[in-house]
Amino acid sequence: MSTIHENKLVAVITGGNSGVGLTTAERLLDLHDGQGIEICLVCRNKTRAEAAQNSLLKYKPTATVDIVLIDTSSIASVIKGAKELRLKYKHIDLLYLNAGAIFVRRGINWSHMMNEIFDSDTPGQKILHMFTTGEGLLLQTDKITQEGLQQVFATNLFGHFVLVQELKPLLGHESPSQVIWTSSRASIKSSFNINDIQHKKGQDPYGSSKFGIDVMSMALNTRLNNQKVYSHTCCPGLVLTNLTNEIFPMWIWYILLPFFLLMRIFVSNFNMTPYNGSESLVWVSQQEPETLDPVTRYESNTSFLGKRYVTQRKLPIETTTCDQLFEECESMYKKFKDGQPLDE
């Protein structure tokens, strides 16, 4: 039975129990005065989800905040949770695809960093590029899910793709819906291989999955704009969250904090706090979705003096890549629905 109230927007946020996801929920409640929007936190951990729900209700006691448990790395969990969402709501206005995973083996790839700096005629530019995009900076690893998928791919991209497919009856039609992906400047085109979309053979599963998000967002626009569904990607920049704990313990980040704040003179996406990082995700929700560029990523930035603002970055994406990725993911999705193995 639907819980939706007349004239209220509905915002569904994956990974909504902490960091940028939770802060986005809080800011949306502020924007709509707690009364004009319903928030649904989509999380994999019930205890943490309930803690997030309680914090939002303490902040806005009259708000409507629901929970649906989904682990985006598990396709069975996504399908089960999507069914619950279809029963709960008649329409979703804002679908934030924010859940993410990265697995770091031993932190910084120091040898790569030193080679890039000392073998370059422009070491300063190399350092800025590495810290802005993370390209080659981290020694990453990956895991295999119980369904046989690469976990970073499943969590960041494929699980969200399946969620969109399962929720299509609630998206668009009589009124527009926005699908808002949390992408990253770490979206690296050279890390992505259309013949290895799960990144089984590469060394940058995170960068590959984030570029895949940018590609998939464009593919969804091609297929769903006529249904009044508009997909866009955002980058929260460098934010201290549970995800960054995979790289360093939080105490190390706090030691490095003065350095990163100083680096804002040169690198504006060192946002540090979830509030700063959520700027682009909230800004996009306030725009007329059909006026936004589907081949642009909207990025959160913070000036050295602490002013938040949003910039736009054109994405190096070809239509053929969009079509191929969509077809690969759709084929895998259909195989799962038919009970077949999820190999590529």
Written account of the structure:
With 344 residues, this protein is an alpha/beta fold. It has 11 helices and 10 strands. Helix 2 (46-59) links the parallel strand 2 (37-43) and strand 3. Helix 3 packs parallel to helix 6 (151-167), helix 4 packs antiparallel against helix 5 and helix 7 (205-224) crosses helix 11 (319-337). The longest helix has 20 residues, at 205-224. The two termini are 37 Å apart.
Write a concise keyword list for the protein shown above.
single chain; 344 residues; alpha/beta; eight-stranded mixed sheet; two-stranded antiparallel ribbon; 11 helices; globular; disordered N terminus
In short:
41% of the residues lie in helices and 17% in strands.
Count of helical segments? 11
Low-confidence residue ranges: 1-5, 109-114, 123-127
Question: What is the N-to-C succession of helices and strands?
Answer: EHEHEHEEHHEHEHEHHHEEH
Shape field: globular
Q: Got a strand count?
A: 10
C-alpha end-to-end distance? 37 Å
How much of the sequence is in beta strands? 15-25%
Please give the largest β-sheet: 8 strands, mixed
Instruction: Report helical residue fraction.
Output: 40-55%
Q: Could you give the order of strands across the largest sheet?
A: 3-2-1-4-7-8-9-10
Helix and strand content put the structural class at alpha/beta
The whole-number mean of residue pLDDT values reads 87
Kindly provide the radius of gyration, computed on alpha-carbon positions and rounded to a whole number of angstroms: 19 Å
